[in-house]
Each structure stands twice: as C-alpha cells, then as structure tokens.
Design goal:
Blueprint: E1 2-4, H1 35-38, E2 42-46, E3 49-61, E4 72-74, H2 75-87, E5 91-103, H3 105-116, E6 122-130, H4 134-139, E7 143-146, E8 151-154, E9 158-160, H5 167-186, H6 192-199, E10 211-214, H7 215-220, E11 226-227, H8 230-240
Parallel strand pairs: 3-4, 3-5, 5-6, 6-7, 7-11
Antiparallel strand pairs: 1-9, 2-3, 8-10
Helix pairs in contact: 2-3
Amino acid sequence: MAARFGPLQNNEFTMPEPSEPQDGEREEHGHYRDDRQELGNITLEGRRGLIHCLTVIGQIEGHTELPSETKTTKYEHVIPQLVSIEESKDVKGLLIILNTVGGDIEAGLALAELIAGMNTPTVSLVLGGGHSIGVPLAVSAKKSFITPSATMTIHPVRMNGLVLGVPQTLQYFEQMQERIVRFVAANSHIPPDEYRKMMLETGELAMDFGTVLSGQAAVDTGLIDSLGGLSDALDALYGMIPQEEG
C-alpha cells in the first residue's frame, strides 16, 4: 500500500566523468552525452557564485517504482543531491523549478523537510502546476514564486493498492493529512484551518474533494509568497546571497 497525495526526473548533482561510450552512446557530432543536461539539472555561474537548478517534474516517485513511460522525479536521487548542495563551499544558492502532479507522500515530505532545513538560500518557482504533495515542496523554500498561469491543487490524502476498511485506516489518513497541514502552515502564511478547509472543500472538483488555486489566488491566500517568473525568482535568490568582499 503506497500513500499518495495526488498523482522527482532522474536527477543527479555530482556526475562521474564520462567513460568510453558503449554502442549507441556517441552522439551525432561525436560528443559524449551530458547526463546532467538530460536529467534537467544544471549548476551555473551566477552573479554571486554558483547556482544549482533542481527540477521537480511529473510524479514524485517513492518506494514503489512507477512505469518506465511515466515521467518521474526519483526522491532517492534528489536526497544526496540536496546534501551535496548544502555541504558545497561553491554552490551559493538553490533554485527549485516545480511542475508536478504530486506523488508519494513520504517521498515528497522527505524532500520538503530537507529543503526547509537547508542553510543554503533557496527559492522555488511553480510553473504549470504544483499540485498535491507538490504544495509542501513549493513552500519549503525560503521564498516561493508562482507564474500567473500556474495552478495548485489541494486535496485529501489518497491511497492506492489494498486498503483495509477499518477505523485504524481512517486514523492513519487523518494523521498523514495533519502532517501535511502542519508543514504547509509552518512554511507559508496560510493558517492551518484555512488550508484544511481547502483540502476538504466540496463542489469545486467534479469527482473529488479539494480546491484549485490560480497563481494569483495562491498568493492571495498566503500559500505562495509572490507572483512572478524566472527573473523574479533569480533576483530573489541573488538577494539572499551575501556579497563577497574583495
């Protein structure tokens, strides 16, 4: 039984030097493939030092492996990446780009807790969608942004697989939802009661409980800090990085 809060791509921060290519590994122009680019991550020289960009896309894959045709972000690949960023003397900031439909609750909360506990300056930007367990990930950064066209869906915890119809199962659901409510409220400006009410709203989603927020509505409720795009997120991130003297 896997807990899912709605429906990270195979990400690596430190990549080994490429070895001799096997059959089919050499590209058209004779260059080795750069896995860091294929996996959607990049560390670049910014205005105040190195900035790492982490993408959270598709479904967040946890302990249960999803089908190969499903676009996923694998949390066991992102965890060491975050540790490397936090411990690096060179990386000065982390930009998190989110376009996720949600996924495994335990995996998503693990990543959100790691990001929230980092001393490295962090900024998140929601593009397209930051749904379900993507909400805690979006608010885990020290500053969060959302584009005007993006949306965020808030709804109760769901389970897939065999579920026992006993009172203990309902209690487990409630405990898991409270963990999410407490984390979101602690890392944003939305009151816990308001977030809980949005999670259990009826009448907005055709076949489900919950609430869909537009970019502006997410800011108005206090869930996300600011409406903006990539340049706004980068400006905020650079503003958190101390100016090096000399």
